[in-house]
Amino acid sequence: MFYLVLTLFGCMTGISAVLFGFGGGFVVVPLLYWMLLGSLGADSAAGQAAMHIAVATSTCVMIVNALVASRRHQKAGNLVREYLWPLAGYIGLGAIFGAAAAMWVSGEVIRYAFIAYLGVTIADCLLRRGFLQQAQGRRARLLGAGETLFGGVGIGVIATFLGVGGSVMTVPLLRRCGLSMSQATSMANPLSVPVALAGTATYMAMAGFSRFDLGPWFVGYVDLLAFSVLTCGSLLGIRLATPWIGRIPDALHARVYIGLLLLVLVSMCLK
């Protein structure tokens, strides 16, 4: 039953990666966190490290999701190079520091940071102009040098600390540059790749400092069995969602995006 549920939710991560730019973190982190606690107990080694395992496995799943979804969006013509580089490089730099910082705090701190971050993001999208509705008659602007440097590093640090890929920061940022939801969510996938790569490598390397013995199916904090099942499901989800690229009305796309964030926020608050 455990792996059947993982397959189902893996499929959902594939769909969310293609249509909303969520590489998996906003589905995988809450799912694995609660499933590890429920199946193994809070006192087990995996239970005590549940949030770290959820975040680390999430970044690993995101590598596959983000790369495959990026390829689909490239074929659809939704990627614009000027918004991808050098922003992706600065995100990767920040991701290393974010993953290292997460290793030295408790799982509860990461959980509460995850909840706080979601709340601030949802409020920002609802209250600040430029997200719910695309500006009409205004040409999209490029990111400034300061936005690229400080925004990129900040996105990398926060995203990898929380295991969420960065889409919740990159999508609103690109949206306010004047891009459509389809373009902004498309760009979130390649911009999640440096977060996923840097985060996974750091979690694997630094888990040697952990006091927990998680067992043979773990590389660092990455649960290989969960990763394999989630990835198989996500590839199916990506295939199912691909025909919908660019076909969702812009205003509806933005509202559903916020609705999904609200669902994740509620799931992480329940305890």
What does this protein structure show overall?
- With 271 residues, this protein is an all-alpha fold.
- The protein has one domain (2-269).
- It contains 11 helices and 2 strands, in the order H-H-H-H-H-H-H-H-H-E-E-H-H.
- The chain has helices at residues 2-20, 25-40, 45-48, 50-76, 87-102, 107-127, 145-162, 167-175, 181-206, 224-241, 250-269; strands spanning 218-219, 222-223.
- It has a two-stranded antiparallel sheet.
- A hairpin with a 2-residue loop joins strand 1 and strand 2.
- It is globular, with a radius of gyration of 17 Å.
- The two termini are 22 Å apart.
Poorly predicted runs are none
The major sheet is characterized as: 2 strands, antiparallel
Structural class: mainly alpha
| Shape, per Cα inertia axes | globular
The ordered H/E elements are HHHHHHHHHEEHH
Q: What helical percentage do the residues reach?
A: over 70%
Cα-atom radius of gyration: 17 Å
* Side-by-side strand order of the widest sheet: 1-2
Number of helices: 11
Q: Mean pLDDT across all residues, rounded?
A: 77
